[in-house]
Every structure is written in C-alpha cells, then in structure tokens.
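Protocol check, entry for the methods section draft. Step 1: assemble the input record (protein sequence plus ligand SMILES). Step 2: submit for complex structure prediction. Step 3: store the structure tokens unaltered in the notebook. Ligand used here: S-adenosylmethionine. Step 1 record:
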Amino acid sequence: MDTTSETIVSATTPRGEIALRVRPDPSGSGVVHELVVAGVFAMDSLDPSTEVALAQEALARVDSPDRVLVGGLGLGFTTWQVLKDKRVRHVDVVEIEEDLVAWARLALAPTLGLVARHPRVTIHAGDVDRVLHGESDPAGPWDLVLLDVDNGPSFLVHEGNERLYRADALRAALSRLAPGGVLAIWAAQREPALLDTLESLSPTDEVLLEVEREGRRLEYALYLARA
Ligand SMILES: C[S@@+](CC[C@H](N)C(=O)[O-])C[C@H]1O[C@@H](n2cnc3c(N)ncnc32)[C@H](O)[C@@H]1O
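Step 3, stored output:
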C-alpha cells in the first residue's frame, strides 16, 4: 500500500479491517482506488487486467452465458466486464463483506457504483462457499461461476477460504453449473495442487498472465474447468 494513500471509508468486521483508500495516479491524472480486506491490501484499480481476464477467458468458453455468478465483489472489475457482454442476462454477485456491499451502493468507487446500479445485477452479502453448497441464496444453475475471493490456496488472505479450494467445494461449484458451463478461478500465482484437484474432477485449462507491477514482473493464473 502506498504511504500517500488516504482512507475514504473503513470498518471493522469479524475478519479484520476493511477499507477503501485512494492515492494519486502515477500518471498525474485522477486517483487509484485501493481495497483493504482482513487488514491486508487486496487490490487496486491501477491495472485490473487479470480481474478483467477472468471474465473474458470464461465468457469466451461458452455460447450462451445467460446467468453468471461472481464470487467476490472487490472493486467490481470482473463483474463490470461480465456486464459488458450483452449475452449475459443476469449476474449474481456474492460478497462476504456487508460494508463493501453498502459502499458499492453509495458508489464510493467508480466501478463499484456502475455495478451496484446495474439493472442486470443482484449483489448478495454472504459467503460464496455457502452458496455453492446450496446452504444460502442465490440458487443456480449458472452458465459461469467466477471465483476471485482470495489469492489462491497457497497464499490466503482469509484462512477460512482454504475450504473453497478443496475437492468437495470445487465439486459443489461444478454441480451448480448448467450443462456446458465453466467454473473459473483467479489466483495470484500458479497453483499446481489446485490444477491437479480440478483436473481430477473435470477437464481444466490453466491460463498464465504476466503483469508488470512497480517494476517487477508477476505471473498470475486462471483455472477454467468445464461442467
Ligand atoms: C480480490 S477481491 C475481488 C476482485 C474482483 N475480481 C474485482 O474485479 O475487483 C476479493 C473479494 O472477495 C471477497 N471475499 C473474500 N472471501 C469471500 C467469500 N468466502 N465469499 C464471498 N466473498 C469473499 C473479499 O471481501 C473481496 O471483496
């Protein structure tokens, strides 16, 4: 997190501090929004290319992505990219932090406002793990299930999310897909164990994405499994 960041709003949740912050854009125009979850820097708006790619790669793999589930609102980039696809009739977003859902409704960051006001979106406050196990609404099936709730099983922000990457949760997620649907998972690094587990359940693609951040080359990964 940049030391010149200013907090717009923050709250304490059972998982720790959540905050929206801004810092000057290095290009000299506008600001960069930052999201802190569980007291840890989660993401910013400087380069959302991999969050966007999560949506693009999944959308490219299905003919009729009528209904889409997005797990983890974040700053809204994945959801906004889904909404740009006119084939999509409805998007359910499940976000664990109620405060973030409220801030989206107040449009405290640009993409959050666009997503929260969109007529084809319903934002649900809750744990996507419970939704995938059928223990809380919304109910599927979905043509796409996109999960970007954490950095990946080897580098968790919320320890509680470890269960989401286990075989039973992945099987539950695949079972929520309509025929021909795709489960797509974002990770901040390659996750060989996750790939093995997914491949044991369903044909899976690994897509590696190179991003340059603060002078360093980073490799993110997407995992896309077919119903
Ligand atoms: C990295 S952000 C997602 C970024 C998003 N793809 C975007 O484009 O801005 C992760 C989000 O997942 C949420 N989250 C974490 N664990 C969750 C869970 N188990 N269920 C639902 N949301 C969760 C966090 O609060 C955070 O908003």
